[in-house]
C-alpha cells in the first residue's frame, strides 16, 4: 500500500490534528456546490418530468435512472488516466464540468425517449470524466491523516448545493406549476458559475511533479492505462466490496417515487424530498468524515449501508405518514455522508500518488456500474412485485451482503494513528 509522501519532520502530531483544510479543497467545494445547484435542481424534477410529462413507465424509467446512475462508469477510468498522464487533473475536470453544463439547455426542446436518453448520457459522461480528477486534486492538496475531513468538507459544500438546487426547483414550480423549462434555464446558469470558479480560482495542481520535486527525482514517464491497480489485494477487495454493495443500492428517484405514491403527495412538493436527504448529508458530512479518520474509513463506509437498509424499510414498509417519510430522507442522507467521500478517501490511500486519480476512478467506476445494474433490476422487480415489495426484497439482500463487505474490508487500510506516526 502507498501513502502520500509528505515531509513530516517540521510538524508535530498536535499540529497535524489542528491542520486546516486547504484552500484548494474549499474552492473545489464551491465548484461542486454550484454544479450541484445545477444538477440537483434538474434531478429533483426529473423523475416526475419523465413519468408524468414524457409518460415513461417504471421499467423505462429504470433504464433512464440506470443511465443516470451508471453510464459515467464508461469514462471514469479514462478521466482518471488522462489526469494522471497529463499531470493536469484540473483541466480534465474542467472538460467534464463543461460537458455537463451544456446539457442543461438541451433538455428544454426534447420530449422523446431517445433524445432525453442521449442528453442524460452526455451529462453523466461529463460527470464520469470529472469525478476522479476532482478527487485527485482534493487528495493532492490534503495531508493523509486528515483526508477524511477534507473530503467531508468538500462533500458538505457539494451537498449545500444539493440542498439549494431542489429548493430552487420547488420555488419555480410553486410559483409556475409545470414550468420545467425555467428549472432547466436556472440550472444552466448555476453550472456556468461553477465553471467560472474552477477556471479562474482553482490552481493547476500537479501531483506527479510535486512528488518528483519532493523526492529530488525527475518527473518520469506518465503512467499507462492498466488494470494492474487491481493486483494489489487490498485495493482489489475494496473494489469488489464497492461493487457488491452498489448492486443493491436503489436509485434515489425510485425511493422518492415510492414515497410520493404511498403518501399521495402533491407533485409540487416532490423536490422537497431531495432537500430532506441533502440536509442530513450536509449536516453529517464533516463529522462523519472526521470520525472515519479516527476509527477507520471501512467501518464508517459499511455502517452507512445499515442506514440505507433502514431507509428501504421506512419507504417499503406497510406504515405511512409524514414521520416515516422524514425518517427515510434523514437515513438516506446519513448513508451518503458515511459512504460518498469515504470511498474516495479509502481508494486514494491504497494506490501510489502518481496514479491516484486512476485508483479513485476505478473504485467509483465499479460502484457506478453496479448501480446501473441495480436500477435496471429494481425497475423490473417493481414492475413484477410492486414498489413496496421490491424495496423490502432489496433491503433483505443488502443485509445479507454487508457481512461479506466486512470480511473484504477489515484490516484493509492503514490505521489513523499510523498515519500520524
Features:
single chain, mainly alpha, 421 residues, disordered C terminus, 77% helix
Topology diagram in text:
Blueprint: H1 13-18, H2 23-43, H3 46-53, H4 58-70, H5 73-86, H6 89-106, H7 113-140, H8 147-175, H9 180-201, H10 207-215, H11 233-247, H12 252-263, H13 271-295, H14 297-316, H15 322-348, H16 356-385, H17 387-409, H18 416-419
Helix pairs in contact: 2-8, 2-9, 4-7, 4-16, 5-6, 5-7, 5-16, 6-7, 6-9, 7-16, 8-9, 8-13, 8-15, 11-16, 11-17, 13-14, 13-15, 14-15, 14-17, 15-16, 16-17
Structure description:
- By secondary structure, the chain is mainly α.
- It contains 18 helices and no strands.
- It has helices spanning 13-18, 23-43, 46-53, 58-70, 73-86, 89-106, 113-140, 147-175, 180-201, 207-215, 233-247, 252-263, 271-295, 297-316, 322-348, 356-385, 387-409, 416-419.
- Helix 11 (233-247) packs antiparallel against helix 17 (387-409).
- Residues 1-18 and 415-421 have low confidence and may be disordered.
Amino acid at each position: 500500500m502507498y501513502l502520500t509522501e509528505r515531509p513530516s519532520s517540521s510538524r508535530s502530531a498536535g499540529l497535524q490534528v489542528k491542520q486546516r483544510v486547504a484552500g484548494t479543497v474549499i474552492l473545489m467545494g464551491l465548484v461542486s456546490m454550484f454544479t450541484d445547484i445545477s444538477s440537483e435542481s434538474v434531478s429533483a424534477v426529473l423523475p416526475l418530468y419523465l413519468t408524468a410529462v414524457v409518460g415513461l413507465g417504471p421499467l423505462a424509467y429504470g433504464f433512464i435512472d440506470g443511465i443516470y446512475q451508471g453510464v459515467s462508469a464508461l469514462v471514469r477510468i479514462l478521466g482518471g488516466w488522462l489526469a494522471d498522464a497529463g499531470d493536469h487533473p484540473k483541466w480534465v475536470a474542467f472538460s467534464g464540468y463543461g460537458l455537463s453544463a451544456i446539457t442543461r439547455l438541451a433538455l428544454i426542446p426534447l420530449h422523446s425517449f431517445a433524445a432525453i436518453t442521449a442528453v442524460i448520457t452526455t451529462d453523466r459522461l461529463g460527470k464520469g470524466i470529472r469525478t476522479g480528477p476532482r478527487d485527485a486534486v482534493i487528495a493532492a492538496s490534503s495531508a493523509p491523516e486528515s483526508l477524511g475531513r477534507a473530503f467531508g468538507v468538500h462533500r458538505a459544500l457539494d451537498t449545500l448545493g444539493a440542498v439549494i438546487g431542489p429548493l430552487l426547483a420547488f420555488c419555480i414550480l410553486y410559483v409556475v406549476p409545470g414550468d420545467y423549462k425555467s428549472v432547466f434555464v436556472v440550472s444552466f446558469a448555476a453550472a456556468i458559475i461553477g465553471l467560472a470558479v474552477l477556471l479562474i480560482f482553482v490552481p493547476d495542481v500537479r501531483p506527479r511533479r510535486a512528488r518528483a520535486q519532493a523526492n529530488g527525482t525527475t518527473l518520469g514517464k506518465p503512467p499507462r492505462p492498466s488494470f494492474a491497480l487491481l493486483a494489489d489485494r487490498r485495493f482489489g477487495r475494496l473494489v469488489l466490496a464497492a461493487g457488491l454493495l452498489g448492486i443493491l443500492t436503489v436509485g434515489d428517484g425510485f425511493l422518492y417515487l415510492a414515497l410520493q405514491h404511498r403518501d399521495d403527495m402533491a407533485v409540487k412538493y416532490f423536490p422537497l424530498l431531495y432537500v430532506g436527504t441533502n440536509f442530513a448529508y450536509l449536516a453529517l458530512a464533516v463529522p462523519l468524515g472526521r470520525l472515519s479518520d479516527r476509527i477507520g474509513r471501512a467501518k464508517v463506509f459499511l455502517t452507512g449501508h445499515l442506514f440505507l437498509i433502514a431507509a428501504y424499510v421506512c419507504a417499503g414498509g406497510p406504515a405511512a405518514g409524514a414521520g416515516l417519510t422524514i425518517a427515510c430522507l434523514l437515513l438516506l442522507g446519513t448513508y451518503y455522508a458515511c459512504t460518498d467521500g469515504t470511498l474516495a478517501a479509502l481508494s486514494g490511500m491504497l494506490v501510489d500518488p502518481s496514479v491516484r486519480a486512476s485508483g479513485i476512478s476505478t473504485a467509483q467506476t465499479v460502484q457506478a456500474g453496479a448501480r446501473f445494474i441495480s436500477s435496471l433490476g429494481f425497475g423490473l422487480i417493481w414492475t413484477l412485485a410492486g414498489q413496496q415489495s421490491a424495496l423490502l426484497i432489496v433491503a433483505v439482500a443488502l443485509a445479507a451482503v454487508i457481512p461479506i463487505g466486512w470480511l473484504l474490508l477489515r484490516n484493509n487500510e492503514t490505521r489513523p494513528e499510523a498515519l500520524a506516526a
